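Limitations

Structures in this collection are predictions, not experimental determinations, and the ligand pose is part of the prediction. Treat each record accordingly. The example that follows, with adenosine-5'-diphosphate as the small molecule, is included so readers can see exactly what is and is not provided: the inputs are given verbatim, and the output is the predicted complex.
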Amino acid sequence: MSEERIGVYPGTFDPVTLGHMDIIRRGAKLVDRLIVGVTTNPSKSPMFSDDERLAMVRREVADCEGAIEVVHFNSLLMDFAMREGARIIIRGLRAVADFEYEFQMAGMNQQLNDQIETVFLMADVAYQPIASRLVKEIALYGGDVAKFVPPGVEADVVRRVVEMGRRGD
Ligand code: ADP
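Predicted complex:
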């Protein structure tokens, strides 16, 4: 096993928000190498494809400090973490809403692999209420999402909403 402390921060990132970016920055400080794992969540219908989300997250982390890699994965999180040599899973926690789901997931992951620890980080209070789902909803109704996502992502979201309007989605 490598001596390097490797962490995985998994998520859908549809789209990546300032909340995610804050967790990425905090997580990168805790490990030697942070792997942001961009996954497909079959229960959510995504606004952006896997490739688009991967490219978006890569572009946004390019200026972040630390060794950060962005990788797509489509397998069990614990298998992905093992493959990457990671022993730490980083998750963000927002107020009570995330708690039950995160608690269950961390508990079951612990049983799948007890060599991997899940670490929960809190975003800056200003970013805590931000959720990708709400960013999409606000944008679809023509609202301004500039306070919730990086500028490049705002442009991506606006462009996608226009495209969806043309297609009549
Ligand atoms: P998932 O589909 O795995 O929930 P998300 O992209 O929605 O993927 O979220 C990835 C991780 O980031 C989760 O741990 C989630 O709780 C966390 N997260 C999302 N938004 C915020 C935020 N505003 N503050 C803190 N953590 C967040």
